[in-house]
Write a structure and sequence with these properties.
Strand content: 5-15%
Order of helices and strands: HHEHEHEHEHEEEEEHHHEEEHEHEH
Helix content: 25-40%
Number of strands: 14
CATH topology of the largest domain: Aspartate Aminotransferase, domain 2
Structural class: alpha/beta
Radius of gyration: 21 Å
Strand order of the largest sheet: 1-9-8-5-4-2-3
Bound molecules: pyridoxal-5'-phosphate
CATH superfamily of the largest domain: Type I PLP-dependent aspartate aminotransferase-like (Major domain)
CATH class of the largest domain: Alpha Beta
Number of domains: 2
CATH architecture of the largest domain: 3-Layer(aba) Sandwich
Distance between the termini: 15 Å
Amino acid sequence: MTGQFKGNFTQQEPIPEAGISAALEVLRHGRLHRYNLADDETGETAELEREFAAFTGASYALAVASGGYALATALRAIGVKSGEPVLTNAFTLAPVPGAIASLGARPVFVETTDALTVDLDHLATTAKASGARVLMLSHMRGHQPDMDRVMRCAGEHGLTVIEDCAHTMGGTWGGVVSGRHGAIACYSTQTYKHINSGEGGLLITDDAELAARATLLSGSYMLYERNGAGPSAQVFEALRDVTPNVSGRMDNLRAAILRPQLADLPAQVARWSALHDEMEAGLGNLPDLRLIDRDPGLVRVGSSFQFRLPKHAPERIADFVARCSARGVELKWFGAPRAVGFTSTYRHWAYAETPDLPQTDRIMAGLLDMRLPLTFSVDDCAQIACIIREEAER
Ligand SMILES: *Cc1c(COP(=O)(O)O)cnc(C)c1O
């Protein structure tokens, strides 16, 4: 009765007309570089920084070239050294361990819970055993643990926390904007995230010195006073001559596209919730299919949907994925032997030490994932859920 789903899982919405007009204006005047400004002009990038600082409530915001670049810049600003261990989730996206490795530092992976967040007991033992002083906490696919407990654990082990909020921009935990618990938070604005400039990233912090270092690192050419939400010039004095330029700025064209999308984000989050709720409603109460538990404090952004088939053997899952695909439902499986497309886990990152993490392995073996672009309607989600249900019950 449900037949074939015809939608496209990677098709995002078009850029809003306000973004297109603003982008055309930048193209017409030609000042794309963020520091190329006419007299009395603030520039789209600086305006975006102001607006993002206001949106998150952070003291400082910096716009950069990608989410992965923001993560690496956060590590550099904190002073992470080559060879140093950095704790991070075993369940995350490749740019997270990649950012750590880009400094010559060592990713140390932490076990995953059934709720797809870091296991806090394992975090404590791994923090002790590794001697790490930094935790790069990835809110992978929008899942967030009890942040009060994370911060308590981090405090006990002397860990500075960097939050990877690529999938939580627009979400909250305990009424607090995602990214406001750690020392620094990083966001991505590439096409598959919550606001879309093709590529791009944002970094926020309340720490003036970290903000100044990140700004200098991003390649401010001593023009940092033109930034939109940076610390005062005084803070830069002691840092400007000793901080390398690792160019990774955002440009005015991308910022122009992003500003109207940021203004729309709360409304978009509500639309994503409706899609995600429909998926959960359609797939609840199946004997062998597990929905992912959500921490009660979390308001998540439902831009993707995960579920587990914990009792299915690998061959059965591969077959299930193929049958769903034949009916137009594109699922990603984290239990595949090799990285496929965007989908990989710690076992696939052979440049890093990959200890045995049996709990993560068990969960990944049965974990399925799909995108929920806003080009889908609630009815589309009902149909997708129906197809998954039928194929899972076979
Ligand atoms: C997308 C993403 C990033 C950053 O990605 P970029 O492609 O570098 O912008 C970081 N962490 C997670 C979990 C992501 O999904």
